[in-house]
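INPUT
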Amino acid sequence: MEAGELKNNTLRQKISNLIVSGELRPGDRLDEQSLAERFGVSRTPIREAILQLSSSGLLEMRPRRSTIVRRFNAAALREAFEALGEIEGLCASYAALRMSEADRLRLEDVLLASEVACRDGDRTAAFELDAEFHEILHEGARNHVLQATAESMRLRVTPYSAAPLLAEDFHADLSVPHLEHSAIGKAVLERDSDAARKLMIKHVSNNFLFIQNLLNNDGEIEQRSASRAKA
Amino acid sequence: MEAGELKNNTLRQKISNLIVSGELRPGDRLDEQSLAERFGVSRTPIREAILQLSSSGLLEMRPRRSTIVRRFNAAALREAFEALGEIEGLCASYAALRMSEADRLRLEDVLLASEVACRDGDRTAAFELDAEFHEILHEGARNHVLQATAESMRLRVTPYSAAPLLAEDFHADLSVPHLEHSAIGKAVLERDSDAARKLMIKHVSNNFLFIQNLLNNDGEIEQRSASRAKA
DNA sequence: AAATCAAATCTCGTATACAATTTTATCGCT
DNA sequence: AGCGATAAAATTGTATACGAGATTTGATTT
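OUTPUT
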């Protein structure tokens, strides 16, 4: 959460980036030795970073067996998204009441930029603006505990939400999430905390339902390009 | 959270017990070497346990300086309790909708036992039943993420909420929290999720206000027996 | 006597070593 | 060819070693 080690922080980010970027997917193993060599440190700091990422639910450390990127079964994923929705809902409702004028201007900017990216079909930009939209609300809640909790929960479902959507061949409608963000943003700017909360919960829930359709029976993300080409 | 190491789990508990029991108070240092000798292991597993407890917010690891039991200033404590109230509120509202009949019977039992302990002035029993009441609701929410989050948040404010109240010389009115629990329990049993949530948020907030009065300017818990005897 | 600065001691962060267990590869058998 | 058992290799969990930075101690000065 808000620890504060030396270079452990950046190591944690480097490792979590492996997952966020999609290089490692749920179930993939993280070999301490290889990671140590890759990042030019010994196993000790690697292990500490892995330990923290396991605490936050992104990785899964199993005794005497390799750490893997955490896999969610259907029930666990439902719980993770339900909790995420509630926390994000809380952040949105507090943000509606507490955000500064500067925050509000920034929120408007992001929504405008998001609309442009959406119209242009710029998936990379839309993806980054999506993340920024949520970050603004986390920070706008003016509660570091809620903020950290929201970010941690978001990170842990990243392999199931963000990563698969970045695949080149995936063509989801960018306008659906954008319109939801727009409605949430409007409620926040109008200081309507109840509406902001409800819309956010609905937004996360929709996101979950969308993702659920991408999952096969094993809880694996369907490989679009690769698996379909081969099959 | 739901890691799953070998004996690291029990080590984590042993160390967190030092704080829960009040042996170590906010700001106290945790020396890795001493803990290693005390628990008969090397520094490595101690360090791993400390790392996890820092992630959960109970301890504070500062680069190149001793780990200490986390200290909250007034603002941070307010945020911690605000977040705790919201999460506990969510748990209570879900519990109202999802708890099994067996859970509900257990909840009634705990409330009855609590009333007895309250009437008899049995502070130890009242304290344990208080914890059990909250645990029932965490589990009753039927969401492991919310449950783990609530328990983690509760643990991190323990040095400020539970520990000081156990002091022998401290005579708070046991009936106030009991009546609040009673009202929350009633709402849960009647499946009134909105009421359960609101009452829980209020309950945690009251708890915070009560604790705030025990704090001096430095954010330290007032020493009742010791400091007053010496002064 | 109080304050200041330097040396010595202590503690942490990381690297390395080694035993225990798991995983992988090899070989033999049906 | 496929399956099972055994041996080799690899990986984890913990202990130990050591350098860098922090803390304490003590001497020196004002």
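end of record. Strands of chain B lie at 29-30, 59-62, 65-69.
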